[in-house]
Each structure stands twice: as C-alpha cells, then as structure tokens.
Design brief:
heterodimer; A: 336 residues; alpha/beta; Elongation Factor Tu (Ef-tu), domain 3; Rossmann fold; Ubiquitin-like (UB roll); six-stranded mixed beta sheet; 19% helix; 33% strand; B: 372 residues; mainly alpha; two-stranded antiparallel ribbon
C-alpha cells in the first residue's frame, strides 16, 4: 500500500536485481571465446537459483536490439563449481538472433532473465559401468556438463564437427584423453563425410553394452534411435534435441490474439509462439520444442496444426495448444 | 471562425498519396527501433522511481519549509513523469515490442485513479479512433462542454469555464468518471448493469488505494509532519492534474483545430483517417525539457498519426511530418504552451455563449468537414 500501484520489489529491483525473492535473473560476468563461432558465457545467477543437474539446460531471456528473446542452452559448468557461477556455451548459428548476440556482442555486466534449470537428459543415480557419448556440433554442450561433473571408469566419446578447429572444448577433451579419463574419436565431417551410424561397430565395438547419451542434429539422433531400436537396446539410449523435428507445414491464416487484441497473418510453418512474440504479445514460453508445456494457451476458435505430426487440432471449450510446435491451419483465435 | 474546409484543395488521390508517405515515415522508425529506445524508457522509469523515492523521503520531514518545497516539487514532477512520459505511452503499447512483461501495456498500472484497462479502452480505442468526431469522441469537451459552433447551445454551457476549471483541478477523477462514462451510465436502469457495476467497483478500489497511500499512509509515516505531508501530496496531485489538463487541452482545443461530423467518417480510407488526425490535433512548441514533461504530447499531431511509436521518436518524426504539411499546403497548428492554453480557454469562454449558426457548410467528397 505504501508503493501502490507499484510493488516494493519494483523499487528494490533498481538496487538489487539478483536478491533473494526477486524474479530470477543473472548477470553476465565474462564471455570466453571457444572457437570461431562459439563462446562460453559465465553467469552469476540470482539468489533464487536452485542449482542444476549435469546435462540440464536453462532458458535465458536476453534483450537483443531492445527485444526480449528467450532461448534454451545447456549448462556446461559442473554442479559443484566453487564460485556459484554457471556457464552456458553457445554456438552462433547462421541467422540466429540470440546466439549471434551472445557470441559476438554480449558484454560483462549485462543483466539477463533466467528460468530454473530443467531437462531429463541427465546421468542416472547409479553410475553405469560403461558410457558412450555420441555428439555433434553444439550437441557437445550438455555432455561437457556431464564430463566435467562426474567421472566414470570407462567413457568413450564420438564427436562430429566439420573441422578440427570447430571442435568446442577441444583442448580440455584432449587433456582428458591424456589423463586416460576419456577415449575420444573425432569425426571431421568436411573430410570424413557424415557419420554413418553403422560405423559405430568399428569405432566403438561394444557400443550396444554402453549407456549412451546422444545430442546433435535431428539426422544423427533419428539414425541413432533407429539403430539402437534395431539392436533391441533402445533403453540404453538417451537423446536431447535442440529443435522439434518438423514434419509438415500446411496453410496458414489470420491469427487473433484476443486478450491482447492483435491480429496478424501467419504462414503454416511458423510456430504460433514466434508469430505472437513477433507481434509484441506476451506469450508464455518454455523449451520451444514441444516438451515442457510451458507455452500452453487456450485455442478459442479455428484450427492449428502440430508441426511435428501434422495433426490438426480444432477449437473446443477447454482445448489447450502448445504454441511452440503449433502453426495456424486457417484463421484461429488464441486467448493470449 | 471559418467554415471553409482547409483540405478542400486536395484530391482523393493526393490524400492517399499523403497516407503512403506517412506510412513510409512510420516504417522508417520501425526498422530502426531497438536497443537505444529500450535503454531510453528503462532510464526514464528508473529515474522516475528514484525521484519519487527521494521526494517522499524528503517529505518525511516536510514540517521544515525547505523540505516541503523540495519534496513537493520532486513529487509533482515524479507524478507527471509517471502519468505522461511513462504511463500514457506504455499504455498505448509504445513499448510492447520490447516484450518485457514489466514494461507492457497489458501489465502496466499507473499513479492515477482510473484503472489502466478502463483508460485504455476510452482513450486508445475511442478517442484515438474517432478523434474529434462530435458525438463519438468524448474527449471533445468531456461531455460537459460545448467545443464547436455547430453544437447546440444550452444554458448549462454558461458555466463551462467553471466546469473546466474544476475538471482541471481534479482531472484524474474527471478522467475516471469519464472512462466509466458516468454521465451516460448514471441514467435510469444502466446503473444496475452488472458490467458497469464491476467497472465502478474497480475504480472504487483504485481510488481507495491511491487515497490511502497519498493521504493516510505517507502522512502517518511522516509522524509530526503529518499535516504538511498531507498538504504536499495534495499539492503534488493538484499540480499534476492542472499540468496534464493543460497539456491535453492544447492537443485538440486550440483555435485552428478541426472537428468533424459523425457522417464524415463513413467509409473513411487510411489516407482520410491520417488527414483527420492531422487536422484534428495541435502541437506545443518548446524545449526538450518541455517535450519531456508533456510526455511528448507536445507532438500531439505526430502522436495521433502514430500512437504506437515510441514517444522518444516523435521529435525526429515531427520534422518529416511538418514537411508533409507544407507540401500538401495544410496548416500545422502549433505554438508555445501559454499561447495554446490561452487559445483553448478562449474557446471555452467563447462557446459558453450562444452563436449564430455558420452559414456555409463545407461539403466535399462526402468528407463534409465542419471547421471551427
């Protein structure tokens, strides 16, 4: 009542944005280049940070050109880091607004928004005897979080990157190899071509006996899932996808965000979450790949298409849709 | 007083071309909108909060006259910043593009007795769409004044200078009543309409909170300075009310601003809508500080053309808009604050008396313009 219509926290945020009880934020403390297009961001999280499990990711909200954009990145620091900082390692993807901003323009001192860490791509409670990490490109990031966190007796890694200098954490990996803590095979796809999953027999003869964590582009993960299933050992394979695999696009339509009162034209391939954000609507969002259900919103009218399956959902009272993996299938009305 | 349509020399084609040129000005700003603009509004909000905190802190000792003066001046400025450069513009959605839930038209609440959602409806939807259309835009005279020769005179209008003065002093309550459309809704059965009652309740709650904060809690916190702090917050609210009332009067009331008949906006094109905004608004000239304290409503013409562009951009947009006024030979109504305030008040006094009906009515392209 002393501060109405504001809250006392609105004033406290001016002084101490990382304090306990504030919305979870972090401050960028350093940016270390890793390769030509990847960098590690050291973040001091706010007091409300609950800590992560190795392999998990965190969603961060970054203001790029004044606009707040949310993306998920794997945490690459170990859980027992002494100074309480966490790191994410970001690879700039062509046209990627947030990744390019973080790798090339982010400066220490910048405040960012954070969510609590989340994700099921984690190590089990009981240590497996033999481990295989199968990664490609920036898919190495959650695995690096695991490697730095927990030592195993027998760890093999197969990592794909275009060229040797594109391998993120290359020096650290080679140090682990020198210390006999890791056996590493690098596949350089510019010279060797893409990894044929059947080559695993030759690279890691006992792959089927190993508890495996795989992270990389959809092509690699699809092939791995098929391969593991064929050999009847699919329960040993754990995968993490950075993007939903889009199978189908249909017709778009006019999308109305009725609570905000905005109407925009949408194509049939762009997630409604992106459409709404582009129009300045405050869309709830989560993993952006159809897993966490943080973005569910009532569909009041019209129809939407699930971008992963092509399935059409029509509006009925109580129907909720995941806006991050749904596109307009004709005119529709989203209650947001 | 003239009854000649000041846009009569424009062809329908020219009006649409004018619309396209204005769209281009808007697109230029949109393409360039970014980090600097975001930094601007964050800086203003942070400065406003600090100023308010410090002023209220100083007022804890308001029993000492220098503290009273300093605290009251600071709080007045803080309240004006909250309502004008921040509140009005955030509630217009000027900063929604940042996607910061803390600075968004759907979440913002301001230091004002009218709840933001009600104000957004009456201001953004009604006033900005139907600008200066008699019978549609209630901002024209707020339903208590006669603002055009063509409006029928009633003995009630004799008192309009007084009504306007009272409205200025308690402007935020005037706005709240007006957002509730009290005049219309207090009639007969409408009073019992559940929707109206819900809205009235929301206003009641907001008033209670505002009054409690300004006139009970902060004076109590001041201890021995109770009465002087009470006087200080009352003064700050009064200053804010009179200031915002004056600025807003300058936006649509000064001589030279056109009003329009209801039928003139039937089938209005984009170009014609732009033209109505251009002819129905007036600017205030002055320093940068002046523009800031008016919440950039001193660029009323530009604001009405582009209500959702960030307010810090109106100054640069104004140069281009003014060039278009010259190109299309239209009158850009502007002047220093005292002159515009006098002009608006002069009209309020003049129209409190009956007048002869203007003989000639401009009628052209179905756009029948009635000039004041």
């Amino acid at each position: 009542m002393v501060t109405t219509p504001l809250l006392p926290s609105d004033y406290l945020d001016l002084i101490s944005p990382l304090r306990a009880g504030a919305d979870l934020r972090g401050r960028i403390e350093a940016v270390h280049p890793e390769t030509g297009d990847a960098a590690t961001i050291v973040i001091r999280p706010g007091r409300g940070w609950r800590g992560h499990t190795a392999g998990q990711y965190v969603r961060i909200g970054v203001d790029v050109d004044g606009r707040r954009l949310w993306r998920a990145y794997s945490i690459t620091s170990p859980t027992n880091r002494q100074d309480g900082r966490v790191t994410i390692t970001v690879k700039a993807i062509p046209g990627g607004k947030v990744s390019n901003h973080l790798v090339r323009r982010a400066t220490p001192g910048t405040l960012i928004q954070l969510d609590q860490p989340t994700g099921d791509f984690v190590l089990p409670q009981t240590k497996p005897a033999k481990v295989l990490y199968l990664t490609a490109g920036s898919g190495i990031t959650p695995v690096m979080g695991m490697l730095r966190d927990t030592e195993f007796d027998d760890v093999v890694m197969v990592h794909c990157a275009p060229q040797p200098q594109d391998v993120i954490f290359r020096n650290e990996l080679h140090d682990l190899v020198a210390d006999r803590k890791l056996r590493l095979t690098e596949v350089h796809t510019d010279t060797d071509g893409r990894l044929d999953i059947a080559r695993l027999d030759e690279l890691v003869p006992d792959w089927a006996e190993r508890e495996t964590w795989a992270c990389g582009p959809a092509g690699l993960l699809d092939a791995a899932e098929e391969h593991w299933t064929e050999h009847g050992v699919q329960e040993r394979l754990h995968t993490e996808r950075f993007r939903p695999s889009v199978v189908v696009a249909g017709d778009g339509g006019e999308v109305t965000f009725s609570a905000t009162g905005k109407t925009v034209e949408a194509d049939g391939a762009t997630p409604l979450l992106d459409i709404g954000e582009e129009a300045g609507v405050l869309m709830p969002s989560g993993c952006r790949m159809g897993i966490c259900f943080g973005c569910v919103t009532p569909l009041k009218a019209g129809a939407v298409r699930d971008l992963r399956t092509g399935e059409i959902t029509e509006a009925e009272p109580g129907v909720l849709i995941q806006t991050c993996v749904s596109a307009a299938a004709g005119p529709c009305d989203i209650e947001q | 007083m003239t009854a000649i349509d000041p846009t009569a020399h424009l062809t329908a084609e020219q009006i649409e071309e004018l619309g396209r040129e204005l769209d281009a000005i808007r697109d230029e700003v949109l393409a360039d909108r970014g980090e600097k603009d975001a930094a601007y509004i964050r800086k203003v909000i942070s400065a406003q909060r600090k100023l308010e905190l410090v002023s209220r802190g100083v007022l804890l000792f308001s029993i000492f006259p220098p503290a009273w003066l300093l605290g009251t001046a600071g709080l007045s400025v803080a309240k004006i910043m909250d309502n004008m450069e921040i509140g009005h513009n955030v509630l217009h959605g000027q900063w929604d593009w940042m996607r910061d839930p803390k600075i968004h038209s759907t979440t913002w609440e301001w230091d004002h007795v009218s709840p933001s959602d009600q104000w957004k409806h009456s201001h953004n939807e009604l006033h900005h769409t139907y600008t200066n259309v008699i019978g549609k835009d209630n901002d024209l005279g707020y339903g208590i004044m006669r603002v055009d020769e063509d409006q029928k005179w009633h003995p009630f209008h004799l008192g309009q200078p007084l009504w306007n003065f009272i409205n200025a002093c308690f402007f935020e309550y005037g706005i709240a009543a007006y957002d509730l459309e009290l005049g219309k809704n207090l009639h007969k059965r409408r009073r019992k309409d559940p929707e109206f009652r819900a809205r009235a309740k929301a206003v009641g709650r907001k008033i209670r909170k505002q009054v409690l904060k300004d006139y009970v809690i902060h004076p109590l916190l001041s201890g021995p300075s109770f009465l002087t702090t009470l006087a200080a917050t009352f003064t700050a609210n009064l200053v804010r009310n009179i200031w915002s009332h004056s600025v807003i009067m300058c936006g649509h009331f000064p001589e030279g601003v056109q009003v329009f008949e209801r039928r003139s906006i039937k089938d209005e094109t984009r170009g014609q809508w732009y033209l109505r905004q251009m002819m129905g608004s007036a600017n205030i000239s002055g320093s940068r500080a002046m523009h800031f304290m008016t919440g950039n409503l001193s660029h009323q013409i530009e604001h009405h053309l582009f209500p959702d562009l960030p307010s810090n951009r109106y100054a640069e947009v104004a140069v281009k808009v003014r060039a278009l006024f010259e190109k299309y030979e239209l009158e850009y109504v502007t002047g220093p604050l005292p002159k515009q305030v006098f002009s608006a008040w002069h009209k309020v006094f003049r129209l409190s008396l009956p007048n002869k009906k203007p003989k000639v009515k401009a009628s052209d392209r179905g756009q029948e313009l009635v000039a004041a």
